[in-house]
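REQUEST FORM: STRUCTURE PREDICTION
Request ID: SP-0412
Submitted by: Lab K.M.
Chain count: 1
Length (residues): 561
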Amino acid sequence: MRFVFYFFIIAQFLNFLGVFAEKVKEDSSEFNPIKWEKVRENEEKPLKKIIWKSYKDDKSYFEKTNLKNKSKENFNKAQEESSTWRNRTLRISFEEIDMPDAGEQMGLYSLGAYDQLNPWFYGGITLYGAATGRRGGFFTGGYTLGLERKLFDNFIFDAGGYVGAGGGGSAAQGGGLMIRPHFGMKYDFNWSKLGLNYTYVDFPNGNISSSAIALSLDIPFSSLILNWEDDGLTVADYFGVDWSNVSRHRSHLAARVRTYSPSNSSKTTSGEPLNNSLGLVGVEYSYFIDENWFTTFETAGALSGGVGGYAELLAGIGYRLPLTNDDKMAILPALTIGGAGGGSVETGGGFVARANLGLEYRLSPDLSLIMDGGYLTAPDGNFDTPYLGLNLAYVMETFAQDQKGAPLVETDLIKTTKWRFRPAHQWYFDAQRKGGSSRDMQLLGGKIDWMVGDWWYLTGQGLSAYGGGAGGYSEGHWGVGILGPSWKNLRFYGEMLIGAGGGGGVDSGSALLFKPSFGLEYNLNKDLSLQTGIGKVISKEGSLDANTFDASLVWRFGTPK
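STATUS: Completed
RESULT:
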């Protein structure tokens, strides 16, 4: 059955390539006669860069009459077309897969963020977590590529595949490598796409192998991606004639520290009372739908409390209510749901719900300090806890093609915040395991860097094991990095990370880890680089003390500010 399924997916992919090739061939006659002219510079508003556009045999482009007005019109149109609105999708899905034990099923939910690379091809990041069954704490993270093609009316064919790493919840995930091909149909409601897919979840090094029917919801949105060099343009220059149809939306990225105080009814998976306070670190991203309502996504892992391997993946909605006229203080009530477990914490199938209230103080236009507290419960397990948290948030601006956010002013300057995203593969050599043995293991993950300056950055990183018999081991880190001067496309880098890791039988102690590294970066072009580096991963209380080797792809991009 598995062979037949994989064969079908490959056949469909080849068919798509064939159709695409025929389409390119048919349209080539239209492409060949394209003629180009250099848009003349407007003396009143000089161009920042050369813009080329096709005139398609319209000889009026070369007429000298009304040249000044024509140049201004062309300038505005070119700027409108050059605005880099990227079509993206937020995908939520749920499916139930069969587990090796007879009659056991595990419900998997997913959160995915995908970039529409072209009209028929998309790709991005996906996270999976257990929500029903008895495998609370099961998580994987990785990358998805897919193909879409409209068939008729509002029906869309969708096929793709996911490769990731993770595990947990005492599941039979083996080394942790997860493969999930899918195909199915989606119905386009314009504001969303509802999908029904046949999927096949396979852990090649483990005993989990199951087909399933998945229900998915795709929510489309658009956002801007800039080059690092794009900076200092006005709103009118950047967005063109339609700048008035764009509004400013707040978002923020926060580093989080939390303390859990489990209730007397909370237990471990072995039935013992969970008496220790738990310390967690994590990251949260919030996007404001309008000036007050926001959506939030967060992940966190245990740093202390003897529950190394405990992790959370949550999403929800909240409201920001300003308390002062200058907007420096605000309260933020929110409700979130998602999955949690691992570290022998008894969360049942993994589903958790949380209510919390935050108090925000704006330290500067770019930074906010948020204190929050709330209550988290696992209805299907034995884990209930109040908590207190402290969050340092980097406040950003996002632009949307709507009027729901703050209005823009034509002369406002758009500045660029510089970021890097690094898909990463790492090797741990002779990683110490519980019981005294050692074994190499391999990890897959991603890193996001905020370039504070030209030579240093702040970074957040997450990795999960997929090889070496350590399925279920995951890490999350915060840290700082430096970049040396460039020499013949080469650049030195160094990093120091602190974070949490656990699971998979790795002896990480209480989960507190230190991770220094250094290496070389080779520049491919203005957007991409390759990195290789060596380092160490050191557990504060466990025996884990292993040499590491890293290979990463570096993608540089900017967001408007």
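NOTES: The chain has four domains: 34-82, 87-224, 233-412, 416-560.
Reviewed by: T.R.
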